[in-house]
Amino acid sequence: MRRRGGGDGGDTGRADGRLGAARHGRARRSWLPWLRSILLAPLLSCAAVPFLVRLFPSVLTKFVYLNFLAFPFFVDFRRPELLVNNTINLYLTTEPGVTVGIWHTVPSSKGAEAQGKGQRWYEEALADAHPVIIYLHGNGGTRAASHRVQFLKTMGAADFHILALDYRGYGDSTGRPSESGFTTDVLALYDWVKARSGNSSILFWGHSLGTGIATNAARKLQEERGVQVDAVVLESPYTNIRDAAANIPITKIYRQLPGFEYLILDSMARAGMFFSSDENVKVLDCPLLILHAEDDGVLPPKLGHKLYETALKAYKDKSKVKFITFPQKLGLGHDYISFNPELPALVKDFLNMK
């Protein structure tokens, strides 16, 4: 009886084990499709991006402009003094329905006098003979981003006026971003400054995406009005937006795929984006300074050098064009050239300023 009972117990145990294994196998098979779906979803999404871009080119503008990334968040644009001294906020209507936000930093030599002053004093200060920089930032973020605030501090300390605007659709500015709209915003600000700055020099200073905006504005000013901006400074530039897209890190995974040019690069033009600095510099005649860090991981310095070579070939007066590279050991990358304490001296030397 005991042996029979023991044998039955062993059989039952083996049966329970087989049943448990079967259940475990079914459970494993049930979640395997979910795991495959989870792993495949991002791959399929990545693969679908080029086709979506080709079908809906307007989607591409979101990736290029990144104006929805309004960092730093929770900034009170009306109180720039919380981030940088000697600075006031103002708004300018650039065309009906579009108003852009601007920070105006005065030279640090006027810092004591600027305390407690309002917009009227700041406007009148533009005619004090100090050069004026209209600063055109890159994509993503706002005029309050840390490297842009550092630019205001660096060049303000070097006795420049700086007017940093958020283009339409950025920060607290109204409107929707577009290449032609950016040019309209910049020229409206140029006119506003010119009407108040007397004989002070006015420079367009573009960074990254803003370099294409700077050359667009300078070219339009020259061709349509016969007026030259006093100088253009291009920091971390590219030749045109197509070349930029072909070299930025985010497109690296697509470059080896067949149809990359057709699906993505050709779609830039279909979305109305050109930013053709390489064509613009062939027309310009104003002093042109190009700055690029050797360790720029976003827009490689070869693009800045190519743009320099194009300008140098086109300019009759070669002394008006200069290209400055910053060694990799400085670690300035794409965004931090303004952290270099030698920057103001380099700019002043190029502009023959004391």
UniProtKB/TrEMBL annotation:
Matches recorded under InterPro entries: AB_hydrolase_1, AB_hydrolase_fold
One MF annotation (Gene Ontology) recorded for this entry: phosphatidylcholine lysophospholipase activity
Keywords: Membrane, Transmembrane, Transmembrane helix
Alphabetical list of SUPFAM superfamilies matching this protein: alpha/beta-Hydrolases
Residue stretches spanning the membrane: 33-53
Annotated signal peptide: none
Domain (AB hydrolase-1): residue spans on this chain: 131-241
A Pfam family that the UniProt record links to this protein: Abhydrolase_1
Domain of life: Eukaryota
GO cellular component: endoplasmic reticulum membrane
GO biological process, one term: monoacylglycerol catabolic process
Region of interest (Disordered), ranges: 1-21
PANTHER family: ALPHA/BETA HYDROLASE DOMAIN-CONTAINING PROTEIN, PROTEIN ABHD12B
Official protein name in the record: Monoacylglycerol lipase ABHD12
Lineage of producing organism: Eukaryota, Metazoa, Chordata, Craniata, Vertebrata
Gene that this polypeptide is encoded by: ABHD12_1
